[in-house]
Specification:
Arc Repressor Mutant, subunit A; single chain; disordered N terminus; globular
């Protein structure tokens, strides 16, 4: 069920991903990621990539660096 490979997730899949990002967890553990992937009909890799990109976008919108670094950097 990977019709999104060339064009990215479908609108319905993004809705599921966004809901989980905003309401459940911005940093899902592997079990949660697996459940979200199954719910959205995506692979775990695709779901993890989406969360990583979405987190970077969220961090930029909050005025934070897109990547989390230690305070000593």
């Amino acid at each position: 069920m990977s019709a999104e490979t060339a064009t990215g997730p479908t609108e319905d899949q993004v809705e599921i991903l966004e809901y989980n990002f905003n309401k459940v967890d911005k940093h899902p553990d592997s079990t949660t990621l697996c459940l979200i992937a199954a719910e959205a009909g995506l692979s775990e890799e695709e779901t993890q990539k989406w969360f990583k990109q979405r987190l970077a976008k969220w961090r930029r919108s909050e005025g934070l660096p897109s990547e989390c670094r230690s305070v000593t950097d």
